[in-house]
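ENTRY TYPE: protein
CONTENTS: sequence, structure tokens:
***
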Amino acid sequence: MKDLLKIMIFLSIILIVFFYFDSPTEENEVLEAPPTMDPLPAKDIVEKDLDVERPAEGISTYIGQDTDEWLNDYGMPDRIEPSAFGYEWWIYNSSFSNYMMVGVKNSKTVQVYTAGTATNAAPYEIGQTLDELYRFTIVENEITVKYGTNIYTFNLGAEDINRRLLVSFDEVYAQLYIDVEDDKLEAVRFMDAETLIRHQPYDMMFVGDLLPSITPSSSLQQSIDDANAKQIVDLTNVYRLHHQRKPLYENPSINLLARAHSENTAKKDFSSQEIELENLNDRLTAANILFDEAGENTATQYFDAAEAVHGWINSSDHRETLLSDKFNQIGVGVFGKYYTQNFIYQEPASAEKQ
């Protein structure tokens, strides 16, 4: 009898271990963007003139130019989407190797982001090593920006120096997004001074006035959230291709599930009541979504889709999920600054069933 009891206890332990370590669902912790301090007024800021000439070729040359010039060279975008910063996004995603997002305001090109390996991002190349970047890039932990009569200084922390460099050219600023595991350039964002100031991606001090904040209406915010979700789907596949992984198919049902989770996570953070979030397995089951494997990445406080995806790629657990070969479908939902990626594997339907 005692031997039988020991065997039952042993089998119970084995089942518990199997359940926790061989679960078909993987949920990573919420990834929070690196915090930035509120902008601080300063009595005086010394302007640093680095005398770095603006690139003579590539996508950065369009910053500040009429959009007609861009359209003449690249044609109409595949999508046009709103942003939370007063510009429109023109999305070019017909070719992931030339993937670009162009910020347009008042018929001017104010920003160009690319993660496309075939895009001319001179003086940079997507995929080049950090050592190659350092050979010809002046790396500063303080960048001074003049806009009108106001002066702003951005302070980069140690993590920023390793992951998100900021480079100042003549009236153009470049953010360099580094993959810290591979020590390679994953994406580049060129922008004008106003766009950089509105994004405020680093700690900032200023002399003069802050730019007035932009508060989207509730309906516009919904459209911005939908745009961020689509961009995250795009960028996930772009980053997967960078690392020789197959792209994922977008599943509209999972999009809805991810959107609901982002909204519920926001409610949990801001509600005075205790709100319990369902686990991924229960959410998928309740939505009647069949799956063999499932995974989830969540993030908060990133100011846009590109920043959120870059955060995930530089967090080991989130990176593993984002690049996993176990999944073949993706759904993304965004609610304000709350982001959810859901991944599943579904056995492809047989020809007879189709």
